[in-house]
Amino acid sequence: MPNIKQLTQHQLKSPPSSIPVKHSSTARQPDKAPRIFRMKDLVECTGLSRATIYTLMSTDPTFARKIRLTARTIGFYAHEVEAWLASRAQMRDAA
């Protein structure tokens, strides 16, 4: 077995082949940690513009509520955004 100084950068970053590696997004986050969407994520997830999202925040009581992360940063719980999108899909299916 080579010592640590003899290993290349690639070998240091790669796990040994005997260790199974998960390559899903859930592998990076603990199960109990809530996912937070920042504005950029929300725009990407919904396909809506920032202006439309700000309008929905002030006019639609069913839209996901913002979370103040810092003095100048807000986020949204992913499960609330997904629930809002699901409710919009149900309204479409009911019509």
TrEMBL record:
What InterPro entries does the record point to? Answer: AlpA (IPR010260), Prophage_regulatory_activator (IPR052931)
Q: Which domain of life is it from?
A: Bacteria
Kindly name one Pfam family recorded for this protein: Phage_AlpA
Query: Which chain positions lie within coiled-coil regions?
Result: none
- Locations of Polar residues compositional bias? 1-16
Ranges for region Disordered: 1-31
Would you tell me the protein name for this molecule? Phage transcriptional regulator, AlpA
